[in-house]
Amino acid sequence: MLSPYPTLVVIRGNSGSGKTTTAREVRRRYGRGCALIEQDHLRRIILREHDTGPDPVAPRFIATTARAALDGGYHVVLEGILWTGRYGDAVRDLIAGHPGPSAAYFLDVSFDETVRRHRRRPEPIPVTAEEMRDWYHPWDLLGVPGEQVIPEQSDLESAVDLILRTSGLAAAPARTSCPDRCPRCATGHR
Q1: CA 115 and chain centroid, separation
Q2: Which stretch of DSSP H or E encloses residue 158?
Q3: What is the torsional sign of CA 161, 166, 171, 174?
Q4: Angle, vertex CA 119, rays to CA 117 and CA 125, nearest 5
Q5: What is the distance of C-alpha 189 from the center of its chain?
Q6: 111 DSSP 8-state letter
Q7: How many other CB atoms sit within 10 Å of the CB of residue 112?
Q8: Smallest Cα–Cα separation from 91: which of 126, 46, 143?
Q9: What is the pTM of this model?
Q10: Which domains does the chain possess?
Q11: Band of the pLDDT at 120, cuts 50, 70, 90?
């Protein structure tokens, strides 16, 4: 039986682990009715907040944004490093407070591979391997029921298929006016 609530998918991993690429592809393959919430965009672009300091706004802001999208009927793909030392409580509370299906994934990629992947980006951010090491948190699991680890050897297609299938998102109907009731979507602009 399908849930009457939207699905929450949380994709986490270290810098360079492939989480943003994976999350964007999950959302692309689902289509309209699924919100993509990227930690880096909300924290760096909207808030311009550094990930330091004793009382950051970003964890609450990200969780509140995800909650608003879920309450609006959107399935949500939330992605980011979302380090448990700073974001863990907010993400666990978001999952615990969501009445619908939730699924959490951690992309487990070695430090050396994250550095290699970062260097292959079309526009890598200007950081050194030493700086990346400061951000690297191996096996940084949330500890929520059903959390799944996606290994380094998993390719993009396999990771996306796994997430769509095991989260239930692949079979979940859209719950927003786009694409269900929107006249523009009904005419094939999906």
Answers
A1: 20
A2: helix 156-167
A3: negative
A4: 110
A5: 26
A6: H
A7: 10
A8: 143
A9: 0.92
A10: 8-186 (3.40.50.300)
A11: confident
